[in-house]
Amino acid sequence: MTALGPGLWLLAQAAAGQAPPIAPAAPLPPVQTTPAPPAVPQGRAEENAVRQAEDAFGTTIGRETIGIYSSDSVRGFSPIAAGNARIDGLYYDQATPPNPRIRRSTSIKVGLSAQGYLFPAPTGVVDYALRRPGTEALLSTTVGLNSLGDKSLEFDAELPLVGDTLSLGAGLGLYDHVFNNGATSRQHVEGLTLRWRPRPGIELLPFWGRSYIADSQIGPLLTTAGPYLPPRIRRGILYGPAWADYSGPSETAGITGSAALAGGWKIEGGLFRSLSASKEDIFTFLDAITPNGRARYIAFSDPPYRRVSVSGELRVTRTIADGPRVHNISLSARGRARDERVGGSAFLDFGDVRLGDPLDFAEPPIAYGAYSRDRVRQWFGGFAYTGRWRGVGELSAGLSRTDYAKRFRRPDQPVLETRDRPWLYNVAGAIYAGERVAFYAGYTRGLEETGLPPQNAVNRNQPLPAILTSQRDAGVRWTIAGDVKLVAGVFDVRKPYLSLDPIGLFTRLGDTRNRGVEASLSGTPLRGLSMALGGVFLDPQVTGEARTSGQTGKRPVGVPLRSVDLNLDWRLPGFEALSIDLGVGHQGRVASTVNNDLFIPARTLVDIGSRYRFTIGKKRATLRVSLSNLFNVYAWDYYGPSTFDYVPQRLATAYLAVDF
Q1: Three-state SS for 287?
Q2: Which of 273, 320, 406, 580 has its CA 20 to 30 A from that of 66?
Q3: Which residues of 540-568 are buried (b: 16+ CB within 10 A; e: fewer)?
Q4: Taking the CA of residue 218 as centre, how many other CA atoms within 13 Å lie in the half-sphere pointing to its CB?
């Protein structure tokens, strides 16, 4: 809760598209939608995902990520593919995420928290919060290293230029990476933000962020020749030549703005450009691995590719306060223009090798084919309503029409075009049962991209048509005491099922229905102890002709049947400058073949760490040390049907953050 007070904060968050408190007790004051500036500069020394997360569904703050979901996987699907990325609540078509020099945090919104976002698609919302320069000068420096030899140096600065009106943020990150598979890379990351508030209620925030990765060596994925896991190999070693690497830039730039006007009107907008490109990109496999450890070493070398998307949203909202009721009526226009230049890959086969042997092949001459070009143009226009009645409940609904057009041009072949103009809609509601409990339910229909086939598909780099999806969910939110809250719900998400068929073609094999139960328990149950405990239990099923004919099994590939994530942060009584933290992550078994004759076994990983907060003069500082995969568990991650990589080995990490 900010200094605005509970009622005013309710209106500000309602107009900003965020979820409100369950049942505000105070009368509703006049409308004010511009949030108050932070009271103190927000530096790196105070970053702590466990203490700052609103729930256990998924949060990234600074270097730390916790929760049962990520930007790639929510309820068994990808919210990025569903078109559910947002920058400060505004529609964003992601070719690459905003980098940490311009992004303060990432949060996953599902259930009740997702209902505050206009026009969501099934699968949850990924919201990137930008760094907002404050009204006091600040320089944060972070130095990090780990037991593999990885080193990093980060600078983040905030500088007020004109009083409270104009402030500048700038960041620089320098990285010398060493990865768990022995690969190395060099990276630099830059970012700039400018916060301009020419008058109360009006804010503009232009920003730019860029990352460049150079000479990033590519360790191979492991593909087996049958329904079995690969034999164990020694971790931390690069199995492949040093010339198999990736280099290239990524950029995110744009501007957001908002203006709170008289009469409860508010205008919000954002325009974004997202770029992912390469100068060189070689993807490698230890392929057709046999139980006795023989394999073929193969690679795909791609010519320089380029993916760029321009997207944005313009939204006009009228907030009407009617005694204990608040009505928000919004009109929104969204769109995106995405262009990709892909394909032309060269296939390289280095023949038979023994798994675990050093591999150093001479780089062969490479002849690339012609590019394919993919173009998407999509526009949305919609109307949304959100109503909140103090002590009673809330209702939200949205109706939009989208015009989706995709054009795919392959060399020496006819142009492929597809077009769809469906109506999309969502409706959700919550009922308050007292001041601490709310019951909610919702339904959403969406249209989403299916992206590209995996690297080992016959039709790799050939974009797929969009698909219609749906979601039903319901649950309860209970504020138990203080800031301790429980969110629990059930969901049913339905989408077409795409995977590799018996000849290696990535195509639709039927439909998939992911039903499940999810829960989050978070807050401070005891003085000094912060907790984020989340869990999801899934019953994913494939339906359709391919399932009936036995071409696919019951379970879709790559979806864990359960995930549990526990994170604790305990500040020692009498010495609160020191804290210890514990993370326990459990993943259930995962179907790794289309016909379900192989599952990756369940696993549990344990992380421990500690923070020591102190001052250097009057400057805040934090020393953080941690140990991930404490028991050095050897396990496998899923990267496609019968395709694996091992879980990172035990790793010690340390960093020092100082706010000057």
Answers
A1: strand
A2: 273
A3: bbbebebbeeebbbebbbbbbbbbbbbbb
A4: 21
